[in-house]
Amino acid sequence: MAKTYQSLVTEAREMLQDSDSTVPRYSDDFLLNILNRGLNDLSKLRPELTYTAFDANSLEVPEVIITGPPAADEVEWTDTWPWEKWFYNRMVEYVVAVAEMTDDEYTVDGRAAILLQMFRNNSIGI
Amino acid sequence: MATEYTYDLNTILRDTIPQLPGVVRAVAERELRQTIREFFERTYAWRTVIEGVDAPAGDTPRLLSDANDGDTNSDVIGILRIVYNGVVLSPLPFKVNRVETGDLPTNFYMTSNPDEFKLHPQLQNASTGLMDIHVALTPKDSLDLTTFPRQIGTKFYDAIIEGFLARMYMHPNKPYSQPALGSQMRHNFRRRMGYYMSQAKAGYNDAASWGYPRGWSPRRPGMRNGA
């Protein structure tokens, strides 16, 4: 099954132990904001990612939104993940890490820092 | 044009992406297209003859664009020889100062683009289908182009691979960055381009690309008595 931005948020929730949709600890908007910031960070590390991924070959990173229709600089979160799968894994790490950083009460010590380091190292290294 | 676009971009990518861990495929495709374009642009190794070309009357440039270069996937990057009604026209480096008009041109010269030329003397009347033009080609710069001339697979394969990997290894700060190896491969690529350029000049059949001078000027194909 094709990966989407939405499935990325879902997988991040699994790592955050936040899979109960009736009482979510993090809202979709909250995690999506992290994802959008992460995409910008990722495009800084790997600027070639946006080369052909979006309309008009723009090098701008579009904003992922939940409800459409999307504007020219937006994509819906049900859209297919446009890059190789290993970048998808990196973004899951990023979303989990930043979510953990905001959650002092439940966070596991050091986990956020480790995940952010993994995000950076794995994005530019093997 | 007898070019067969049977060589798939993915064939080269399959052979090279294992050496490029962490590469973004769209970027690899782009660099590969650029490598192929560079190879043909520098070597003039892809040559063909466009037959039966029309010539306009007056001081009008003849442009070999998509509509009349016989191929929508390629661009003309050099005009090597023009035969007008069986007579080889001598190339001139620039426009002749005097204006002459007639129906039997003897020379041609390039205008601002490599696919555009004018005849001298300029034609009094337009002609239809009298010109055969020997040209060098390169694939068009297009994101949609996924198949290439088959000579890439039969003859130039290793050169293209080295040129492509050189470009990729030169990328900064990537998992596959290897500037030293990239530099070596770039060196090899340039040597191979020189080798294939000389082969192309010899027509790929060991023909001599030069001739002994006759009279007071170097002999050119099609000239009579050195004139």
3D architecture notes:
The complex is a heterodimer of chains A (126) and B (227). Chain A is 48% helix and 5% strand. With 126 residues, chain A is mainly alpha-helical. Chain A has one domain. In chain A, helix 2 packs across helix 3 and helix 3 packs antiparallel against helix 4. Chain A starts with a helix and ends with a helix. Chain B is α+β, with helices and mostly antiparallel strands and 227 residues long. In chain B, helix 2 crosses helix 4 and helix 4 packs antiparallel against helix 5. Chains A and B meet through loops of A and helix 2 of B.
* Number of DSSP strand runs of chain B: 11
* Strand order in space, largest sheet of chain B: 2-10-4-5-7-8-3
Largest sheet of chain B: 7 strands, mixed
Give the number of helices of chain A. 4
Largest interface: A-B, 13 and 12 residues
Give the SSE order of chain A as H and E letters.
HHEEHH
| Low-pLDDT sequence parts of chain B | none
Gross morphology of chain B: elongated
Mean pLDDT of chain A: 84
Order of helices and strands of chain B: EHHEEEEEEEEEEHHH
The main pleated sheet of chain A reads as: 2 strands, parallel
Helix content of chain B: 25-40%
Structural class of chain A: mainly alpha
State the secondary-structure class of chain B: alpha+beta
Average pLDDT of chain B works out at 86
Based on DSSP secondary structure assignment, what is the total number of beta strands of chain A?
2
Q: Tell me the quaternary state.
A: heterodimer
The end-to-end distance of chain B, rounded to whole angstroms, is: 32 Å
Percent strand of chain B:
25-35%
Number of H/I helices of chain B? 5
